[in-house]
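User: Please predict the structure of the protein below. I'd like the answer in structure-token form so I can feed it into my own downstream comparison script.

Assistant: Understood. Taking the following sequence of 176 residues as input:
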Amino acid sequence: MKKIWAIRKDAEAVSPVIATILMVAITVVLAAVLYVMVLGFGGTSTTTPAATYSKMTATNGQRINIVSITKTDVPWDDIKVQLSDGTNFAEWDTATTDLDGGSALTHNYTTDTLGTLTVCLLVTDIGGNGFVSGTDYFVVYTYGGATGFVAGTTYSAALVYTVTGEKIGTGQTFTT
């Protein structure tokens, strides 16, 4: 018995243009799905890191040591140093470009007013990498004739994470 295969002459295939458009669309959809899977569906949640501090007396002021910090990738650009006497505030915006020299690097920031005092900030990034670490420290000191902070006043020094606007840890208090 002989089989005869019939070839249909009325069958049409998808045109090459339509086939190309379908392949590109499938590729774009697959890329979008992969992108969502890799990066996650929601935005990244931002939490304020925690830190602990210690203090020691410095000339005309206090040296505040950052003992530990929970995030290791916080650039100095995202940090504001705040000093308070309970009523008034002095604040300094720090900058990564001031503190990323490749080795221990210190930067002296401009003066600010805290009540009747003129105060300064000196920041030292021990690693010189532009990131806050558990070995870095900052010094707040009086300037312009004052030989120290007002006796009997309790001061609070802290780092503020500008991304969330919250203090990093509770800060460090000192009374002179």
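That's the full token string. The chain has one domain: 51-175.
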